[in-house]
Write a structure and sequence with these properties.
Elements (H helix, E strand, L loop, with lengths): L7 E4 L5 H10 L1 E4 L6 H8 L5 E5 L6 H5 L6 E5 L8 H6 L3 E3 L6 H16 L2 H9 L18 E5 L3 H11 L4 E5 L10 E2 L3 H6 L3 E4 L13 H6 L5 E4 L8 H9 L5 E4 L18 E3 L8 H19 L10
Parallel strand pairs: 1-2, 1-3, 3-4, 4-5, 6-7, 6-9, 7-8, 9-10, 10-11, 11-12
The structure holds 2-keto-D-gluconic acid.
């Protein structure tokens, strides 16, 4: 039950139950995803909304924000802001807060997990044992990870956390980004294709910005060595999925391990028929510990905004 003194927030998509309960205890919460007639709802209640809470993978549309004249903050459950029009929020002086730093370790862990699982055939090995095939057949050989070259596209916090982990596997670390990063003792490549050509594992850790849309395309797969793997823990929008499917079908590259897709939760069924792809349902930050940390971070960002104090995860 809300009180009249509680600020009003609009939740764009469901978040974990504990966070929803914490939001309900502190705020008057409207849930956009529960409305059968969203335009009518926004006309009726849009002017009451002071802050928006959304997920990194969902964001909030400009059209929705246009119906919220009082909104002053967007609290993102996640770090991705690709589904928010940051030019528009800047124009409107809407603060945007993310769960900064909380999920870096988990996402980097999953990148390494995907790399190891794909190249060491862990999912296939599990099936092999369960199906009793080991009784009659020796398991097929896999591909070594330690000592290989990892190419990291996007050397932000997550890219750097992946690099630190890869160091533990004695890997040669190469990267590209908009610019060379000071103080990083890794091999810089001036462009994506040079990086791709020298990578045994090409890991995408760049943002899903408009400039990166479809950037991992057929030309990148052609540049990669035939034995190389693609790992994506960033956003599906960076990859031309049709070109990736062709590259996997034609063995242009060894394989791919993907946590993210262009049109989640819909995954092209062509992937299902392929043995050389490992698929995950966007779970890089999905551990109990990290999701609790992300929830707290959302609450802290909102509390900072509503008490006119610092917003710890403010990006704009
Ligand atoms: C989350 C994410 O899975 O941080 C992001 O941008 O995409 C992920 O951490 C998502 O925000 C929660 O659904």
């Amino acid at each position: 039950m809300h009180t009249d003194t509680q600020p009003t927030i609009l939740l764009i998509a469901p978040v974990m139950d504990a966070l929803q309960a914490a939001l309900d205890a502190r705020y008057r919460v409207f849930r956009l995803y529960e409305q059968s007639d969203i335009p009518a709802f926004l006309v009726r209640h849009g002017a009451d909304v002071q802050a928006v809470v959304t997920r990194g993978d969902v964001g909030v549309t400009r059209e929705t924000l246009e119906q919220l004249p009082q909104v002053g903050m967007i609290a993102v459950f996640g770090v991705g802001t690709d589904a928010i029009d940051l030019n528009y929020t800047r124009e409107r002086h809407i603060s945007v807060g993310i769960t900064a730093g909380v999920l870096t370790d988990d996402v980097a862990d999953l990148a390494l997990g995907l790399m190891l699982s794909a190249s060491r055939r862990l999912c296939q090995g599990d099936r092999f044992v369960r199906e009793g095939r080991w009784e009659t057949t020796p398991p097929p050989l896999a591909t070594k990870v330690s000592g290989k070259r990892i190419g990291i596209f996007g050397m932000g916090n997550i890219g750097q956390a992946i690099a630190r982990r890869a160091k533990g596997f004695d890997m040669t670390i190469l990267y590209t980004d908009r610019q060379r990063k000071d103080g990083l003792d890794y091999q810089w490549c001036a462009d994506l294709h040079t990086l791709a050509a020298q990578s045994d594992f090409l890991v995408i850790a760049a943002s899903g910005s408009a400039e990166n849309r479809g950037i991992i395309d057929a030309s990148v797969f052609n540049a990669m060595p035939e034995r190389a793997w693609l790992i994506n823990i960033a956003r599906g929008s960076l990859v031309d999925e049709a070109a990736l499917i062709k590259a996997l079908q034609n063995h242009v590259i060894a394989g791919a391990a993907l946590d993210v897709f262009e049109n989640e939760p819909h995954v092209p069924t062509a992937f299902f028929a392929l043995e050389n792809v490992l698929l995950q349902p966007h779970v890089a930050s999905a551990t109990v510990e990290t999701r609790q940390g992300m929830s707290q971070s959302v609450l802290d960002n909102l509390a900072g905004y509503f008490s006119h104090q610092d917003i710890p995860g403010l990006i704009q």
